[in-house]
Amino acid sequence: MKRKLAALLLAVLCALGAVGLVGCGGPSAEEVIREGVTAEFEAVVDTESEEYQELVDALEQAGDLATYGVDEKAFMDSMYDGFAYEIGDIAVDEEAGTAVVDVKLTCKTFAEIFNTMMGDALALAEDPAAATMTQDELNAKLGEVMMGAVDGAELQETELKLDVVRDDDGTWNWDDTAEDEVTAALMGDF
Question: What is the pTM of this model?
Answer without folding.
Answer: 0.79
